[in-house]
Structure formats: structure tokens, C-alpha cells
């Protein structure tokens, strides 16, 4: 007679709880210990982020009385609509420029070794350790009428007089792309690094030239890193304040600067909170769309 297998407990078949996935010294921590370890983080998140944010958003619907008039103002006034459209347009241009500049750098970082790889990595990471204000001020020095760029253009004979490069939409896009470039390079570099070199060699053995192998093998397999980097740059650009305020003009007014004006000059906190609420809805919508388009495990390198 064959032996009967002992019954398996239902808890053994159930998927592990997220609070039971932490390990310490080779031992799996219980849910209680895991919750205790995570409690300071969630308490800090609640105190310094969620509570102030919810308090601010409550002003948009509760001041001076329960109403949605502040949100109606955002969409009724064409000036505010133009600011929102301009913010999205500048953010999109910034993302495209960062992608054009950043993808070749990320690709090269996966192909070089030694001192060259160290130099490229330093060039990408060092700007993260400097202030955004300092990097933006550098662009003011470069783009002003007597700056390096205008002097170089006149020395080369391309222009007869200084051009207006500063306080333009192009200056805003260029400076923002420079500041946000590392946030696009690093996800793409991670995606490209996870692609085995054998795939490109196999494509070459099957008759594909380098151009075809790039567009049909390398680029599709790195799209998770490309989309994640583009999303990070675009969402960060939507809320940029320092760079547009310094290198832009009133014609390049963006939503973050508009919020600052409403708070500091107009003292209209409820309307400023409504602008922030609209921006949050846009950010949340884009994040959910991206989450549907690219699964989280692929984003973190779990699959091609």
C-alpha cells in the first residue's frame, strides 16, 4: 500500500505576505518585526510629506468655504490654461532633448572599460552632487550676450552681433535637460547592461548589420529603461522651478513659478493649492499609464 502524503498546511500554500520578506542574518523576519522596522520610515513619510500635502490640498476645496471654484478658475481662465500647456510642452521638449543626448552616453558606458568608463561615470554622477542653482547659473554665464557661446559664434563668423540666447524657451529646455540628464542616463544604462552581448553577436551571425541589430534587437530590449528614464525626466520637469525662473522670461512661465507667484505675491493659498492638485492628477495619471505599459519587474531589470 502506498504511503499517504501528510496534509499540507494552508499557510504553507498561501503566498508570502509582503511584510514577511525581510531577512536578517539568514533568518526570515516575522511580520511584526518587519512592521516595527518599517514604522519609522512610514511615520516620517506621514509627518513630513502626506500630512502637509493633504493639509495644503484641503485649502483648495475648503477655503473660504466648501467649493470647487478654485479648480474651475484653473480651466476657465485662458492664461492659466496656456501656462499648463506650456509646462507640458517644455517638459516634453526637455525629455526629447535629454533622450537624444543621454542614450548615446548610456550606450557608450556599457561598451567602454577602464579609465574611460570611470571618466564617463564621473561625468554623469558628479553633477548630481552639485546644486541645481549652481548648474543653472553656469548656463547664464554661457548664454548671456557677452558669454562664451555668443563670443564663439562671432569669432567663427556665424553671427555679426550677439544673439538673444538667454531668457528664451530654448535656454529653459537646454538648462533643464542638462540638470535632468543623469536621471535618464542611469535607467537606460541599467537596461542596456542587462542585455547579453550574445544577442548582438547572434543577430550578426544571422545576417543583420549593426544598424538593423540596433533597431531590432538592442533598442526594443532597452525600451523599459528608456520609458522609465523619460518618465522620470518628464515628471521632474513638470514641477521645475529654479531653472525656468532664472534662465526663462515671463513668456516661459511654468506652473511651479505660477504657484510661487500665487503664494508669495497674491497670497492666494487656495488657488495655489488647486494648481498643485491639478498637477498631482496629471502626474498620477501618467504614472498609472506607464505602470500599465511597462510592468514593474521589467522596469527593475526582471525581464526584457
TrEMBL record:
<feature type="transmembrane region" description="Helical">
    <location>
        <begin position="269"/>
        <end position="290"/>
    </location>
</feature>
<feature type="transmembrane region" description="Helical">
    <location>
        <begin position="116"/>
        <end position="142"/>
    </location>
</feature>
<keyword id="KW-0813">Transport</keyword>
<feature type="transmembrane region" description="Helical">
    <location>
        <begin position="171"/>
        <end position="192"/>
    </location>
</feature>
<dbReference type="Pfam" id="PF00528">
    <property type="entry name" value="BPD_transp_1"/>
</dbReference>
<dbReference type="InterPro" id="IPR035906">
    <property type="entry name" value="MetI-like_sf"/>
</dbReference>
<feature type="transmembrane region" description="Helical">
    <location>
        <begin position="89"/>
        <end position="109"/>
    </location>
</feature>
<dbReference type="GO" id="GO:0005886">
    <property type="term" value="C:plasma membrane"/>
</dbReference>
<feature type="domain" description="ABC transmembrane type-1">
    <location>
        <begin position="84"/>
        <end position="290"/>
    </location>
</feature>
<keyword id="KW-1003">Cell membrane</keyword>
<protein>
    <submittedName>
        <fullName>Mannopine transport system permease protein</fullName>
    </submittedName>
</protein>
<comment type="similarity">
    <text>Belongs to the binding-protein-dependent transport system permease family. CysTW subfamily.</text>
</comment>
<keyword id="KW-0812">Transmembrane</keyword>
<feature type="transmembrane region" description="Helical">
    <location>
        <begin position="224"/>
        <end position="249"/>
    </location>
</feature>
<keyword id="KW-0472">Membrane</keyword>
<keyword id="KW-1133">Transmembrane helix</keyword>
<dbReference type="InterPro" id="IPR000515">
    <property type="entry name" value="MetI-like"/>
</dbReference>
<dbReference type="GO" id="GO:0055085">
    <property type="term" value="P:transmembrane transport"/>
</dbReference>
<feature type="transmembrane region" description="Helical">
    <location>
        <begin position="29"/>
        <end position="54"/>
    </location>
</feature>
